[in-house]
Amino acid sequence: xxxxxxxxxxxxxxxxxxxxxxxxxxxxxxxxxxxxxxxxxxxxxxxxxxxxxxxxxxxxxxxxxxxxxxxxxxxxxxxxxxxxxxxxxxxxxxxxxxxxxxxxxxxxxxxxxxxxxxxxxxxxxxxxxxxxxxxxxxxxxxxxxxxxxxxxxxxxxxxxxxxxxxxxxxxxxxxxxxxxxxxxxxxxxxxxxxxxxxxxxxxxxxxxxxxxxxxxxxxxxxxxxxxxxxx
Length: 231
Known about the structure:
about 230 residues; mainly alpha; about 70% helix; Maestro/Maestro-like HEAT-repeats domain-containing protein; transmembrane helix; HEAT_Maestro
């Protein structure tokens, strides 16, 4: 095998070995040391844009593991983390990178409050919604999980905006209550939360029944208006 082929392969292997080491470090308590943490985060940021999708995936996973190695540092680096992880949701070459980013975001968001997310809230919410109908079961399921986390985080500043996003996704949310993938049923906490905010039945199945009754009622009213006959 020629050197022209061996060298690129060797570089990829070395890159993956480096990422494995960093991945382990991100779960280690030594991250609490300021200088060490900044160096590691800088490397992970760079690797999150690597040409190799596996390297990008591991970099994103490593950033999510900051929650384990130094949870008290998550708020300090919140913008840094959110910018990279939300950016990874736009990865057009690897669904694995997107899935890993969603998992990392789920970890990070649980350490934050609404005010910590700032202006990233809008971009994050919109991007999550794009995966509600994705063909990939894992992406669809994680999208609903993240939407549920955002629902619980929403208090004041983004309450109206989030309610509008839910309104735009209402049909999709209801349809996926019957999603063929059982894991996607994790949308239920999101729907239940939103129903409670609107004084609607907290039972998703009951809501579907009520909506069907309402649609039938409206249809009968339309028929009556069109025909002049009491139905």
